[in-house]
Amino acid sequence: MPEASGWCRLLPAWLLLPSLVLMAVCSPHAATVAAGTACAPRCYCSEADEGKTVRCSHLRLTRVPTGIPNDTRRLYLDYNQLPSLPTDAFLGLPLLAELDLSHNELAVLEPGAFRGLAPSLKFLDLSSNRLATLNPEAFEGLTARSNLTGNPWHCDCALQSTLPQLDLEPVSLTGIVCHTADPAESGAKGQALLLTKELDLCVLLKKTTDVAMLVTMFGWFTMVISYLVYYVRANQEDARRHLEYLKSLPSRQGKSEESSTISTVV
What we know:
alpha/beta; two-stranded parallel sheet; 10 strands; elongated; 4 helices
């Protein structure tokens, strides 16, 4: 009986041991599942000393996915099919330091597309997209170093006027290499627009504006001269009529006196 009572005392410990082993085996898996639920759908999340990384590459995405954790430090959306970035596309990511949007189909960056990223973002990759021009309102004071290479940039007066309004690191703007240019004969094609400081793509616009001003001034001058000519001729006509009227007055007065004389004689 003493031996049986000893086994009875040890039985709860033996029953508890498998439960402890099962918890030890399943706990890493449970942590992984928990981490997965905190990630954006179809994306892969990982943790490192530098912070959380979210990879959504090669997923044929046509819009920025929802559910990106707000403690994300690096976000990779490269090799997708994003056609544009809407306003507030990355709002709620205050710690984001690196954003990779390369190899998409981006042609439009709407105003406020990078709103909220200015304090933290250090690197922005927009290479190999379809950007032809830049909207400074999309960046809202963003000072990140950017990769803008591999886009079909259309260099014209509008783009050249936009560059000074961007707060991106100057080295970033060297990636704007003219794919096409306006005017075409400007010689900008194939050149980095920022580096060709002697190139003024607004000259043609200025000339067009000057010509338009000259044409407008000539039109006003013609109208003024026409009015003066009309005014002078109208006055001359009035003066001629008035003079004829004055000339006719003595003859009528003479006829009246002659009639009076005849009446008196009779």
